[in-house]
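Deliverable D4.2, example record:
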Amino acid sequence: MFGNPSLMTRIAVGKLVGFAFGLIGFLLLPYFVPDAPMMFRFAILLWYTTVGAFIGVFGVFNYHPMLHLPMPWWFRSFWVGAWMNFVLVLFIHDTLAAMMNAYFGENGFLQSPYWLVVEGGLIGLVIGYFATKYGGEGEETVGK
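Output generated by the structure prediction step:
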């Protein structure tokens, strides 16, 4: 199953690892934020599954055509994970800010919702590692 590079394998592994991170968030969120709504918990679960799928798809692009620079898996994965969580923060900034202030305090070090961007980058690295290990990378994943 994991012998040949495959885009479908990359996407499946990315979604599986992303789902695992989303499930961790789904299960642990009530312990950190007791009044977290169920819709928010499901959104986290599905968000990281989608992030995993995007990281899997972007495994095809291992070279930037305009800058003429290689894009190794760790660069792509971190960038996609951080970017997707940045978009998430922009969508739900007020809700996240209220949750972070309630948990970390108004003047706490980690009270900014933008820490989620760093978290997305780190989770993206883990997803990218497993997607590349089991699904390969580059043009050979597409097949002929």
